[in-house]
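# step 3/5: fold
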Amino acid sequence: MPSRSPSTTLKANRYLSSCTTASRVVLRKLGASYDPTDAAAAYNFIEGKLKQNEYVTGLIHIMKPGGTEFHAGNNTSAVPLNRIPYEKLSPAAPPWRN
């Protein structure tokens, strides 16, 4: 095997690093002991996974029975926002829109 100088090896490694764009998606189920009704635990779980460069998706937290539903507590619209005209979403339209 031919020997390489350190600079040649460094150039080769830089090339491989810049040319390799491998991606990987890992799917995992939550453990049986995970309690989706514990909001603090859900937040801590997400924070812990972010520190490991992992992104959590899916249903991580559900409201306990009898709690205030998000939309009721925040008085959100029953109509999807993409169905509401701009003028109604932004009643004080900027002057350049006229």
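# step 4/5: annotate
The chain has a mean pLDDT of 75.
# step 5/5: archive (pending)
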